[in-house]
Amino acid sequence: MGKLKILVVEPNKAPYKSEIADDYKEMQKIVGGLIEAVYAFSDNAILFCNDEGKLIGLEGNRHVGPHIIAGTFFIVGDDGEGGSISLTDEQLQKYSEQFEQPEEIQLEEVQEDCYMEFIGFN
């Protein structure tokens, strides 16, 4: 298994670069549980966070688009075929700058952003 260059973003901290094995269990260790892929970026990058972060009361971390990500997350490159690749140096720089400033997010804000959408099929 190869190593992936990623950017880790923890609540109340500046982001930092890291390398991990391209392994599901390694990814789970970073976020502290089951992983969820969030396709919030337009430049072949994926954000992975804890799938149950809001439900289990993890601390609000950063706003991404209109939503709040709870708990530690990381960003990795997307190979376009369902796999992960290392972030480019440009992506590392871009997301380091984007998430440089920690955000103070109240628990109430996280709870308000926690919802499920049910779609019925007839």
How do the helices and strands line up, and which of them pair or pack?
Blueprint: E1 3-9, E2 16-21, H1 24-31, E3 35-38, E4 45-50, E5 60-64, E6 67-70, E7 73-78, E8 84-85, H2 89-98, H3 107-112
Antiparallel strand pairs: 1-2, 1-7, 3-4, 4-7, 5-6, 7-8
Explain this structure.
The protein is α+β, with helices and mostly antiparallel strands. The chain has one domain (3-112). The protein is 20% helix and 33% strand. It contains 3 helices and 8 strands; from the N terminus they run ββαββββββαα. The protein has helices spanning 24-31, 89-98, 107-112; strands at 3-9, 16-21, 35-38, 45-50, 60-64, 67-70, 73-78, 84-85. The strands form 2 sheets. Strands 1, 2, 3, 4, 7 and 8 form a 6-stranded antiparallel sheet that branches. The chain has a two-stranded antiparallel sheet with strand order 5-6. A hairpin with a 2-residue loop joins β5 (60-64) and β6. The relative contact order is 0.22. The mean pLDDT is 91.
Put the structure in a nutshell.
This protein has one domain. Helices cover 20% and strands 33% of the residues. The protein has helices at residues 24-31, 89-98, 107-112; strands at residues 3-9, 16-21, 35-38, 45-50, 60-64, 67-70, 73-78, 84-85.
Largest sheet: 6 strands, antiparallel
**DSSP strand tally:** 8
Structural class call reads alpha+beta
Average pLDDT, to the nearest integer? 91
Radius of gyration: 14 Å
Number of domain units: 1
What is the number of helices?
3
**How far apart are the first and last residues' alpha carbons, in Å?**
45 Å
* Strand residues, percent: 25-35%
Which parts are unreliable, with pLDDT below 50 for 5 consecutive residues or more? none
Bin the helical content. 10-25%
Order of helices and strands: EEHEEEEEEHH
- Tell me, briefly, the overall form: globular
